[in-house]
Each structure stands twice: as C-alpha cells, then as structure tokens.
Amino acid sequence: MKNSFFGKIDKSIFGISAIIAMVFVLWGALIPEQAGKAFGAAMAFFTDNFGWSYMLIVALFLVFCIVVAWSKYGRIKLGKDDDVPEYSTWSWFAMLFSAGMGIGLVFWSVAEPMYHYASPPFGEGNTLGSAGMAMRYVFLHWGLHPWAIYGVVGMALAYFQFRKRLPALISSTLHPLLGDEGIKGPIGKAVDILAVFATLFGVATSLGLGAMQINSGLNYVYNIVESTGATIVIIGVMTVLFIISAVTGINKGIRLLSNINMYLAGIIMLFVLFLGPTRDILNIFTDTMGTYLQNIVQMSFWTDPFGANPGWVGGWTIFYWAWWIAWGPFVGAFIARISKGRTVREFILGVLIAPTLLSFIWLSIMGGTAVSLEVSSAAEIAKAVSENMSTALFAMLHNLPLAGLISTMAMFLIATFFITSADSATFVMGMLTSGGDLEPKTGLKVFWGVTEGAVAAVLLAAGGLGALQTASIVSAFPFMIVMVLMCYSLVKAFNNEQIIIVNEKAIKTESPGVSM
Predict the structure, then answer these.
(1) Which regions of the chain are under pLDDT 70?
(2) pLDDT tens across 371-417, in order?
(3) Is the distance from CB of 211 to CB of 422 less than 8 angstroms?
(4) Which one, 168, 191, 492, 511, has the greatest CB density within 10 A?
C-alpha cells in the first residue's frame, strides 16, 4: 500500500507493530507501577528458566561465524560477482561501530568495571584479583560475542537481499526453509513483526541509558537538576535530532555523524590516555587481552549453577546477550545495507575484529583508568557508581586534568552516539514496515522515531534501569530462536550455491572445445 506521507507500507506488519507499540506506551504511561511489576516478573521468569539458552546459543553464533569465515563459503560475494563496496573501509568501520555499540559502550565503560571490582562474579571484591576479573568480564561483554550476533543477522540479510534479490526483511533470511509463499505468509509476517518489536525495545534501552548519562553529566559538571522528568526532556530533544538525521538518509546525516563520532571518541581517548595513568592503561590492555583469550570458553558458558553469586549472571551476561540479540535486527539490517559487495569472509572478519579491537582499546583507556585510580588512590569512583551508575564516567574524569573540558566533550559524544544509534534503528524499522524498501519515506521514519522516544520515556517512568534491562531480555528471547533458524537457512543456501558452482564447472569441462 502507498500513502503520500508514509510512502510504501506493509499494512499488516506496520499496523500490528504500531498497535503493539501504542498499547505498551499507554500502559506504561497510565499505570507505570503495574507495568514496572510486570517487567520485573517477566525478567525473573526468563533469566531463571532460560538463562542457560542465552549463554549456549550466543556461543554457538560466535563459533558459526568463525567456521563460515574460514570455510569454502567465505569466498561468496554479498551481492553480484562484480559488485564492489559502496563505502570506504573507514566509513564502513565508523558506521559499524556507531550503530552497533555507541551509547552503551560510553555508559558502561567505567560503570561496569567499577561494579565488578566491588562485586565480582565470584570471590572477594575490592581486591587486586577482582580488578583483573572486572576488566576480563568487561571484555567478554563487549567483545566477540555481540559482534557475532550482529554478524549472523547482517550476513544473512546481505546475502539474501543483494545476492538472491529478496526484500530487505528478516523473513527473507528464512527463504530456504519457508519458500516464496512462506516468507510472504503469516509466518513471515510474524517474524518481521517480531523483528520490529525487538528493535523497538532494544533501542529504547539504549536511548534511556544515554539520556540518563547526559542528565548525570549535566548535573555533575554544571549542577543542572537530575531527575526522571529532566531525563525524559532530554529524550525528547534527542528524538527530534535523530529523526532529522534519519530523514537525511545514510549518505548524509548517518555517515557524517558516524565519522564525527569516531574522531571525537579518538580525541577523548587520547586525552585520557596521556592525562591519566598511561603505563597502567597499556599494561591493563595487554594483560586483559591475554586473560580474555585464555578464559573465553569458560566465561562463555558460566551460568553460576551452584549459586556462587545469585543474580550476577542474569543481571550482567544474560542481560548483555539479550540486549545484543534485541539489537540484532536493526544493527544486522543496517550493516547489511552498508556491506553490499564484500565477500562473506571480508564481512565477518571486518564485523568481528575491527569493532571488537576498538571497543577493547576504549574499555582499557576509560575503564582501566578508573580501576587504576581506584586501586592506587582510593578515588571513590566505585562509591559514585554504587550511588548512581550514570555518573561513573564523569566521576572518573573528575580525577583528571581538564576534567570540565573532557566531560563536556564526553556529553557531546554521548549525544552523537544517541543520534547515530537511534537514526539507524529508525531507518531500519522504516525498511521492515515498508516491505523492505531500502529508502523508506520520511513519514515512516518520523513515526518510528517518535515511537522509539516514547517507549524509552515510558520505560524510564515505569522502572528506570531495571525496566530498560527487562525490555531487552523479554523481547530478545523469541528472536534468538529465529536467529538459530537463520544459521541453518544460511548453510542450506550456501550449500545450494556451491552445488550450482560445481555443476557449472562440470558443464564447462564437458563442453567440446572449438578449434580454429
């Protein structure tokens, strides 16, 4: 169906998704206490009964990506055989990183290691041992696993979209299993609606975190009041800005802001690296890289079966895996959109290694500085984190020279990450509800942008950080099952492609030559 304002839309996907979103917004706005209790009950149910499945399946996604990259399938082009990448490698990396991590990495880069330092997954807190463990688990949560999740979705979408010429929809990735009629029927529609739902709540979680941190930064640096109301106002302002960016499209607003993010993040990292405990930061990066690689298998499967620290795995690792899965549809769709012309191997290695390494550098500089200051000088950053996680970054920067300048730059970085993550999601939700249109119309992007901001505000009003975490975990579980089917579908499609290639070679070999 076409509309002058919304452009092309899929009535069933758009209508059902919009109704679900509106019901949720009204529920949270009118009876936030009841909504908050429901969120808490839902989170307890999924983490208690299905936490193991998040751990097991996300590890499977990482293994799947590595095996596919180094298999015979790695040479397959995500597009026609003569397609070339549309974006430079630098712009590609910048957009990957900005869309895939952004706000969350800035929010948790200090808060998480300081929390684990004081309350590690096992053993005694506030020790040298817990300091090393804190950094190791931060690397786990922001390392190869989340990018493997994005890699699975992005690779499947790019392959079926650009090589098989199917619509840019999550349901298209199941074509080998469902066929033409299946992806256009009720099952395919349900999968696409689920992708919109997961994207909406996954992004709302990040928007809430970003707004909370901006509010805390304004309070910490400029003594501007910190409250839920002020945070919601920040969400409103940021929503207007990211809608403007989304409307300008990938080649203008999104790419420009992504490049600005990278430069600004680089400047802040250099400031902290050279104004902070430089030697300790370099030692922490080197040591943690080693212990991360040494312990990655054990950490990937640790579910705390005997209750060494009840609630820790559910509140951290499972929350993260669910959060990344909830981000999977939109980040996967976005990186697929910008990855046309790359081979499967190039795509996987680029998605897994470059953003992971950059995340580790950022975490070592920001989180490593906080841990080093806390261990060596009792900087009381951990105390600030225990009182309000949103202040963690600014509490750390307060201990450095030029704290006011760097803190202001950090708030601007959070704002730009806020915009790039949200405008990418807005763009993708427009694609998903328009039948896979690669350039969804302005009206559709405006509608989903406003909805994202409204859901983030409702989650904050209904339960703050806890409600944000719950939304990710609940929305991610069914999509995780879709991703498992996606892996099977990809292998089936790759096998068929190899058979075709072998048959074509056989025909050429058997064909009689023509002599002159």
Answers:
(1) 1-7, 98-103, 246, 249-255, 258, 378-379, 462-473, 498-516
(2) 999 988 766 787 778 887 888 888 899 889 988 889 888 888 888 87
(3) no
(4) 191
Would you say the pTM of this structure is higher than 0.85? Answer: yes
Q: Which CATH number fits domain 2-499: 3.10.450.50, 3.40.50.2000, 1.20.1740.10, 3.40.50.970?
A: 1.20.1740.10
Output the pLDDT for position 440. 80
Token pair 């990418």 in the structure block, residue: 424
Orientation angle between helical segments 186-222 and 11-30, nearest 10 degrees? 40
CA distance 455 to 205: 9
Q: Are 68 and 295 in contact (CB under 8 A)?
A: no
**Unique residue bearing structure tokens 């949270």:** 28
Structure confidence at residue 65 (pLDDT): 96
The whole-angstrom separation of Cα 191 and Cα 178 is 12
What's the pLDDT at 220? Answer: 78
Alpha-carbon distance of 219 to 134, in angstroms, equals 27
Say how many residues make up the chain.
516
Domain-by-domain residue ranges, the chain?
2-499
What b-and-e string marks burial along 321-331, b requiring 16 or more CB atoms within 10 Å of the CB?
Answer: bbbbbbbbbbb
Count other C-beta atoms under 10 Å from residue 315's C-beta: 16
